[in-house]
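Now for a concrete sample entry.
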Amino acid sequence: MKKNTLLSIAFAAVSGLSAVAQDFHYTLYHMAPLTLNPANTGAFTGDIRIVNNYRMQWFTVTTPFKTLSAGIDAPIFKKKMSGSDFFALGFVFNNDKIGTSALKTNRYDLSFAFHKDLDGQKSNYFSIGFQTGLGQQSINLASMSWDAQYTGLQYDPTLPSLEGAGGSIFWFDHSAGISFTGTGNERFKNAVGIAYHHLTRPNIGFMSDDRLYRKLNINWNAQVALGANSNAILIPNLLYSQQGPNRLINAGAGVKYMLQQRSRYTGFKDEKSITFGGAYRLKDAASAYLRFDYAGWGVGFNYDFNVSELSLASKGVGALEFM
């Protein structure tokens, strides 16, 4: 009886959080560049980038919350641009499914960015990006239980819920962002970005007006070599996010260890590295992650330890996340 009571309280807490928190989030937000800031579009070394993220949360409390993202971006018109300035184009798909209610959100976003080389040395860039897309939200009420389905003695799922079957809506959404990336030398890199999402506050209500809050993201990250001849690199990161009454603060750091340096001239050897890191999300969770990179490929895994009041029911299990 005590366990069932705790689970009921936990589920109520989860339901309340999902109703208030408008957007999904990743603990490995710095590994989901197109969902973080449109100005990140094309901001990488290479010709094309493909990123896939997956998150499963609260699976020990209720039907898990699941989020999936897949994005692709690339610089464009580089050969036609004078100097080192360039444009970039990207696309990202996001799918978010919330618990028992089967509330699903699909987003299809196209992003565009311009990167200005500030010193002509490809060391300091100012970037501005825009993102526009289509959102779709649906809910399946048939998967839930309602008061009308209780006979007074027991629950009967064959009885009508009197709540309808659900519905689906579409909306358009727009975001913008800027970023600055600076490389002091080969052993130090610094980046800061500011993004503003849901500029037009789209209406996502099924039966009444329910508009998304605008969301502000401010993020910072750096790469600092630990010693003149060290193969270890410190990677601190910080995210501040504000959406309506909801605030998220995530601070963390990782240590990247170079297992093998890339051959600078011959190209016979590819870069190989492993990164260990962790983070703390204020009043919510602590996390630990592991990432392995080889040549142009990378894979990451993160585990969240729940430290909020929900930990009583979740037993500290927060989320699993893959990149």
Summary: The two ends are 39 Å apart (CA to CA).
